Amino acid sequence: MVREGQEHLLAEGLLDQIRAKPRRGRGALVEIDGAVIFDSKHPCFVRALADPSEPVWVSFLASVAYTALNHWQEAVTDADELAFHARHATLLVSGVLSPASG
């Protein structure tokens, strides 16, 4: 849904650069090490996956992932990140991302 009309925001291959691995469970939620790597033991990650139908926590992870992509990948610009967050926030606030809408 976020890509509709703005396909470049999640171009081919970008999503393949996001992973999750068990780390320490404290400290940074995400680190960049050849990919965007979430700490799957981090409390925020655990909370989001405890109820993936909860749009706020899942959206939080999407936001963190896109910000990390912007920091790491030159192909993702600050303008792309702003557009992604604006589109994502609009969908979240409108209820499109809620479980009842899917």
What does this structure look like?
The chain has 102 residues and is α+β, with helices and mostly antiparallel strands. The chain has one domain (7-101). The chain is 42% helix and 11% strand. The protein has helices spanning 43-50, 55-72, 78-94, and strands spanning 18-21, 30-32, 36-39. A 3-stranded mixed beta sheet has the order 1-3-2, with helices on one face. It is flat. The mean pLDDT is 84.
The number of helical runs is 3
Counted beta strands: 3
Work out the radius of gyration.
14 Å
Helix/strand/pairing class, anyone? alpha+beta
Spans of 5+ residues with little confidence (pLDDT < 50)?
A: none
> Span from first to last CA?
11 Å
The major beta sheet can be summarized as:
3 strands, mixed
Q: What share of the residues lie within helices?
A: 40-55%
Please tell me the overall pLDDT: 84
Q: Beta fraction of the residues?
A: 5-15%
Read across the widest sheet, the strand sequence of neighbours is 1-3-2
Order of helix and strand elements from N to C terminus: EEEHHH
Estimate the global geometry from the Cα principal axes. Answer: flat
Please give the domain count: 1
